[in-house]
Design a protein that fits this description.
Distance between the termini of chain A: 10 Å
Number of domains of chain C: 2
Strand content of chain C: under 5%
Shape of chain C: elongated
Chains: A mainly alpha (328), B alpha+beta (670), C mainly alpha (339)
Order of helices and strands of chain A: HHHHHHHHHHHHHHH
Strand order of the largest sheet of chain C: 1-2
Oligomer: heterotrimer
Radius of gyration of chain A: 25 Å
Order of helices and strands of chain C: HHHEEHHHHHHHHHH
Largest sheet of chain A: none
Number of helices of chain C: 13
CATH superfamily of the largest domain in chain C: MetI-like
Largest interface: A-B, 50 and 49 residues
Strand content of chain A: under 5%
Largest sheet of chain C: 2 strands, antiparallel
CATH class of the largest domain in chain C: Mainly Alpha
CATH architecture of the largest domain in chain C: Orthogonal Bundle
Distance between the termini of chain C: 49 Å
Helix content of chain C: 55-70%
């Protein structure tokens, strides 16, 4: 088990290094630091101001090779943008935003709270709803309920999430006056009102695909022998579904869950942007609209890190659940 | 199992009564709070740098200035703020001019940890004349990068001071000194003299009649050197750009710049000191225009009362227009602009629709001192000066093909005045009733002039295809795209082949820098109500290609420049009017711009917001406004009752649809 | 550059003709295709209609300049443009579907009753704009995938077949690319490359490549161990021969299904890109984004949004249905039970 763990984590680290290289190529080799400097500082500043800004934000060194140093000197390779990039990202030294100079790490901290307060309930309630609906439909398979739900799933999967958000805001916020149209206030007395609508819209948008998947998994479990045995023994239906089918179907469900954890952090981009929730997703959208490359770079990195972590956790949980994996 | 379903349905049903769409906590309901919104997050609160409306909303109310604009009078008039009187120019020998300000007593900075404990045990101190000098020194400091540094060029010694600072900073250790030390060692600005604690003298090397307007803007507000030294971003302290230490009627109590900020009443404001009881900037105007009273804009009972009235102003960020407007309609914002989409529901003919009037709302209209225009790059070989008469006729033809009125109606619900010249109504030099012959929509005439230019039907005889022109834009939103498409279509109508090159902001600035643009679209909102602030946009030395200035059209006309220099410092008299009309005649003929429109600001206010008169010039106004909280609470509750029946209906439907299956199943099982 | 799109169309048509000749020869393909047609006639017909519209919109040529067509000459006009003649059908501004007066102000229209779905802010016919969006959608979903699939297959099959170093390298590249959340990578690519049709397609290609590669690699790994492959190798068939004759045909059906699913994913993700301002010009996503504000007007202006949404929804739904049906058709279990 330990060997497996080490191997897996080692590979994860290697992947992180690879991702950093990709980011480097995208954000340093392809983009022009002069343009970024001009956008941030303004058009009419003197050359020294640009140079100063570039130095402050880490754009002023040569890309791969610093020819200012001689061949044998290590600094030829370490005093470059590439080396700086790796050093800063691996030590989580994110620096400052290109657009308004604020420290990125602070913004990340501030944004994490609202993001989590949206995505965690979304995830949990979404999962519960999908599982409940999936069990219900699997139980009533081949009946009109099953067919109707399948058709509904197909329909809902074909609608773009943009439309869900627009319709949700219009119907629930404007016509029915149930919840505020948008906004956010961390005050615990009122925070639930602001989250109710985005969570609802998020669940409705994603439930179609989940239910279809879960239904397949559950139906496959239900055809197993032990289910027939349990029924023959006289177990009630609910008991059978929940205690036997659900539990054994957990393995594939689990792998899907763990894979989704990274998205809890990167935040639901669209939902946060439309509903004005000041989380990490909002931060990313602002970075896009403000041409803020350093924040965008950091967000992509964080997303990748969370994803890789999620993969490692998935593999580990799979290894724990299924002995064949860790011994093989 | 179906017991679970029933339980879930009941739970949902019980949750419904708790629903509400009020975004504010219930405890706020009875305080004197004003709710407003902002769209763009402020980039900086440094008064020497802050230039956008979003930033000015804060700096204008948190920082006081020597002079202010009278809240109600139109055209705008300067009144004393922190100064005891509006100074007259005093002529000095060798052509210099001097203005002397006397600062009022009892002006204190906001209590802030950057001060040592001072009067009455609070961490604050009196404002002295040296604080104004410090503020101007910061504007002159190249490291601060103030966008208005060139506007103070006539102040004696201004540019020299900047140069001395740059030189001294090259020496060892100088750069590590705090800012006020550096300015002291550089001997300050020669033309800014503090006489004692309360007298400030500004000496101009040459006359500049508009300089007084700059003293009504936060660029010249007194700044505490302690604040600049303390808020340096180290040890967890904020940057000075994110922290405001002013003297104003409000302090910045909460500042999360991306999401919300709050202004709180300053109890130690100079207006509350008995000596300043009649300071024009601290009391509501005693004389009120009867029209303002008749239109219920201003409540006459406020005349002469002490300011401010509201305890707190809360701003929330609304990035999207529609949710903002909807929240306004629900009563959760006290004022706001109208959005295009709901215009017809709100305004009918020229007044508020009956539905809105029934809600007690008010509509206020002001024409902003602004001009929105399409510009030509006058250095372009096809469109500009190198093409001589041909280029001129081409520009004239294109100018005739654009219908400003229709543009306004399509994209702005007619909220604007089609522009005849670049000067908007309310600015000296604007001639009401004057019609620019090249701004009257006339496609036939446009085609004729285009043919005279040698491009019959738009065909370029050199290539035998339509003349290809590039329209360069930097806005990438869908709605902006539609506006550009409309303009391009107007020119295609006379036969030209227009290609819209919409790029990101970076790419656009690149093009401008390289001079690789032909047609562009831009807008300008005046800093102060003087024609110089518009005409300078076409002065040769402001040309983009020569000095990176705002004259993006690169318009260079010797006669125009000569007239400009003559008219710049004249008072608003006959001679000035004549010079200006000659300048406008040149612009009319040469067509460096197609003047589109002057924007009209439509501001809606709710019945509970009192004393709200929109000012076209960006100026502090919250100290004059007031709210009636009980009225607001009552109307909000009335307008936002949640509609519950759809939820019950859906629940019943779900149960009804699934019941047959459940019942059949249980029956078959037995 | 209309001759580019003309050339591409020609290539595609030639490719389709070649396929139509090759496929019926194999009994496996012929039977599956017929079975699919039997089950989902409507969906297939719908997709064929979309393809036809896209085709019509891709063939363009330029009219010579003359007095008569002063406005439209000089620009390449596609067949759809010529049928609809958008310039001559223009109104001033909004009008309701099949109306004879304009929406605001009630003035009589230039072409009363001619607009099936009304007109938008600039007076352009909504049906025309929706049809123009078909080509963009097919471009995003279809062309991008078509370009990406051969490259992905190349890497995936090589990795799966030859294993060891090649496999390690390809697998690593795939993992690195897959580790970055899709939307974020897409945004980063477009921000860096700039706005434009080619750039967006390249970005979509880079993010979509991994999916195909993974499928190809997985299947190839499985197939490599099959008996008949070992037999072929014993008989002395070359590597290339094995790949061409045994591996490729057996992963083809999976590739097709994945193509269908990734098509819908790409088209739906383009709407999100349009919202962020970095999508393609003239796409349905852009129409939805433009129209999003119109829902808030009173009375509501819904036809712009309806046109784009219905077109998008129908296309995506049809492809989803076909993908589902394909999976059922190919899976022997469901076939055998004769459902």
């Amino acid at each position: 088990m330990a060997a497996f763990l080490l191997r897996r984590i080692g590979y994860g680290l290697l992947t992180v290094l690879g991702v950093l290289f990709l980011l480097f190529v995208l954000f340093f080799a392809v983009t022009n630091p002069d343009d970024i400097a001009r956008k941030a500082v303004g058009e009419r500043a003197r050359p020294e101001v640009y140079a100063q800004w570039k130095a402050n934000h880490g754009y002023d060194k040569p890309l791969f090779l610093n020819k200012a140093f001689a061949g044998g000197d290590m600094r030829r390779y370490t005093d470059t943008l590439l080396a700086e990039h790796y050093r800063r990202m691996l030590t989580f030294d994110f620096g400052r935003s290109d657009a308004d100079d604020s420290p990125i790490a602070t913004r990340l901290w501030q944004g994490a709270g609202p993001s989590l307060s949206l995505t965690v309930p979304l995830f949990i309630f979404g999962l519960v709803a999908a599982v409940a609906l999936g069990l219900f439909v699997a139980f009533f398979r081949e009946t009109y309920i099953d067919r109707a739900v399948l058709v509904l799933c197909m329909l809902t999967m074909s609608i773009t999430s943009l439309l869900y958000i627009i319709a949700g805001q219009y119907l629930v916020g404007k016509l029915l006056n149930w919840f505020p149209i948008s906004g956010f206030d961390p005050n615990p007395a009122v925070v639930a009102r602001f989250l109710a609508l985005p969570v609802l819209v998020g669940i409705v948008a994603g439930i179609g695909a989940d239910v279809r998947f879960l239904r397949t998994v559950f139906i496959e479990e239900m055809s197993r022998d032990y289910v027939r045995t349990a029924r023959a023994k006289g177990c009630g239906d609910a008991r059978v579904m929940v205690r036997h089918v659900l539990r054994n179907a957990l393995i594939p469900i689990l792998t899907n869950i763990v894979v989704a954890i990274p998205f809890l952090f990167t935040g639901a981009l669209l939902l946060e942007s439309f509903f004005g929730i000041p989380g990490l997703g909002s931060l990313t959208v602002e970075a896009i609209q403000g041409n803020d490359f350093s924040t965008l770079r950091t967000m992509v990195y964080i997303g990748a890190l969370a994803f890789i972590l999620g993969q490692i956790l998935t593999d580990i949980s799979y290894a724990i659940a299924d002995p064949r994996v860790r011994l093989g | 199992m179906y017991r679970l379903w029933i339980l879930a349905a009941v739970a949902c049903g019980l949750a419904v009564p708790g629903c509400t769409n009020n975004p504010y906590p219930d405890t706020d309901r009875d305080k004197k709070v004003l709710y407003s919104s902002f769209n763009e997050a402020p980039k900086t609160l440094d008064p020497a740098v802050a230039y956008t409306t979003a930033e000015h909303v804060i700096t204008g109310n948190v920082y006081d200035t020597l002079l202010e604009y009278h809240y109600l009078e139109r055209p705008y008039r300067l009144i004393p703020g922190l100064a005891e009187a509006v100074p007259e120019a005093k002529k000095l020998p060798d052509g210099r001019q001097s203005y002397r300000f006397r600062v009022r007593p009892g002006v204190l900075f906001h209590a802030d940890p950057c001060f040592a404990v001072g009067q009455a045990g609070r961490q604050t101190r009196d404002v002295v004349a040296a604080d104004f000098a410090f503020a101007l020194a910061r504007v002159a400091d190249p490291a601060v990068n103030s966008p208005v540094i060139s506007s103070f060029a006539q102040v004696q010694g201004f540019a020299d001071f900047s140069k001395r600072l740059v030189e001294l900073r090259k020496t060892e250790g100088f750069g590590a000194l705090p800012a006020h030390e550096q300015y002291a060692r550089a001997d300050g600005i020669a033309g800014v003299v503090a006489h004692g604690d309360k007298e400030l003298e500004i000496v101009l090397a040459e006359p500049n009649a508009q300089i007084l307007y700059w003293f009504a803007m936060p660029f010249t507000t007194p700044i505490a050197w302690e604040a600049v030294a303390y808020y340096d971003g180290k040890d967890g302290r904020r940057h000075f750009a994110d922290h405001a230490v002013g003297t104003g009627p409000y302090r910045l109590a909460l500042y999360e710049k991306q999401y919300r900020f709050t202004l709180e009443r300053n109890d130690a404001w100079y207006g509350s000191v008995p000596a300043n009881r009649d300071a024009p900037g601290a009391v509501f105007p005693k004389v009120i225009d009867p029209q303002d009273i008749a239109e219920a804009r201003i409540d006459a009972s406020y005349a002469g009362r002490q300011l401010p009235f509201v305890d707190r102003v809360k701003f929330s960020r609304e990035r999207e227009d529609i949710p903002r407007f909807n929240k306004f309609l629900q009563g959760y914002y006290d004022d706001g602009g109208i959005i295009k989409e709901s215009f017809d529901a709100v305004v009918q003919g020229d007044r508020l629709s009956p539905a809105m009037q029934a809600r007690g709302m008010r509509l206020d209209k002001t024409v902003e001192p602004s001009i929105y225009y399409v510009g030509f790059n006058m250095e372009d070989p096809v469109l500009g000066v190198p093409a001589g008469e041909r280029g001129r006729k081409l520009r004239q033809a294109m100018s005739l093909a654009v219908d400003s009125q229709q543009y306004l109606e399509l994209f702005l619900n007619g909220r604007g005045v089609p522009a005849q010249t670049l000067l908007p109504p309310g600015i000296f030099g604007y001639a009401a009733g004057y019609k620019n012959p090249f701004r009257q929509y006339d496609v036939a005439r446009a085609r004729k002039i285009l043919a005279e230019a040698g491009y019959r039907n738009g065909i370029d005889p050199a290539t035998n295809t339509r003349l290809k022109l590039s329209f360069d834009t930097s806005a990438t939103t869908a709605s902006a795209g539609l506006q550009f498409e409309y303009l391009a279509r107007a020119w295609r109508e006379i036969g030209l082949d227009i290609e819209i090159n919409a790029t990101t902001y970076n790419q656009f600035q690149d093009k401008i820098r390289r001079g690789a643009y032909q047609i562009f679209i831009w807008g300008w909102l005046a800093d102060f109500p003087d024609p110089e602030n518009f005409l300078f946009l076409l002065e040769c030395q402001s040309a983009r290609s020569k000095s990176g200035g705002p004259n993006t059209a690169n318009f260079c006309d010797k006669e125009f420049d000569r007239l400009y220099r003559e008219m710049k410092d004249l008072p608003n008299n006959e001679q000035r009017a004549r010079l200006i009309s000659r300048m406008l005649a040149i612009l009319e003929r040469e067509r460096p711009w197609i003047e589109l429109y002057h924007l009209e600001n439509f501001v809606l206010s709710h019945a509970w917001l009192v004393n709200s008169k929109p000012m076209g010039i960006s100026a502090p106004a919250y100290k004059y406004k007031d709210v009636r909280p009980e009225l607001r609470a009552r109307l909000q509750a009335e307008w936002n009752a949640p509609v519950r029946w759809p939820l019950y209906l859906v629940l019943i439907l779900v149960v009804a649809v699934t019941a047959p299956a459940v019942r059949t199943y249980y029956r078959e099982r037995l | 550059m209309h001759w580019v799109s003309n050339a591409v169309v020609l290539l595609l048509v030639l490719g389709a003709i070649w396929l139509a000749r090759v496929v019926p020869r194999e009994r496996y393909w012929r039977e599956n295709a017929l079975e699919l047609w039997r089950r989902r006639r409507v969906a297939i017909a719908v997709i064929a209609a979309y393809l036809l519209i896209g085709l019509l919109d891709s063939i363009a040529w330029v009219d010579a300049a003359s007095e008569a067509n002063a406005l439209t000459s000089g620009r390449p006009a596609t067949i759809v443009d010529r049928i609809f003649k958008p310039e001559s059908l223009k109104e001033a501004s909004y009008s309701a579907p099949l109306a004879s007066v304009s929406f605001y102000g009630g003035q009589p229209l230039a072409h009363p009753g001619a607009h099936l779905l009304g007109t938008d802010l600039l007076g352009r016919d909504v049906v025309y704009r929706t049809l123009k969006g078909v080509r963009v959608a097919l471009l995003i979903g279809g062309l991008t995938s078509l370009v990406v699939i051969p490259i992905a297959l190349l890497f995936g099959v090589s990795a799966g077949y030859w294993g060891k170093r090649i496999d390690d390298a390809v697998f690593f590249a795939m993992t690195v690319l897959a580790s970055v959340p899709n939307l974020l990578l897409l945004i980063a690519l477009i921000m860096v490359l700039g706005k434009g049709t080619v750039q967006v397609c390249v970005a979509l290609g880079v993010t979509g490549w991994v999916h195909f590669c993974r499928i190809a690699r997985g299947e190839t790994l499985k197939l490599r161990e099959a008996d008949y492959v070992a037999a072929a190798r014993a008989l002395g068939v070359s590597d290339a021969g094995i790949i061409r004759r045994h591996i490729l045909p057996n992963i083809a059906h999976l590739v097709i299904i994945t193509f269908a699913l990734s098509f819908t994913a790409l088209v739906l993700s383009e709407t999100i890109l349009s919202y962020l301002g970095i999508g393609l010009d003239g796409s349905w996503g852009q129409m939805i984004d433009q129209a999003r504000n119109e829902l808030s007007r009173t009375p509501v202006i819904w036809w712009n949004l309806a046109g784009a949404s219905i077109a998008l929804f129908t296309l995506v739904l049809s492809v989803n249905i076909i993908a589902d049906a394909m999976r059922d058709v190919i899976d022997p279990r469901t076939r055998r039970e004769g459902r």
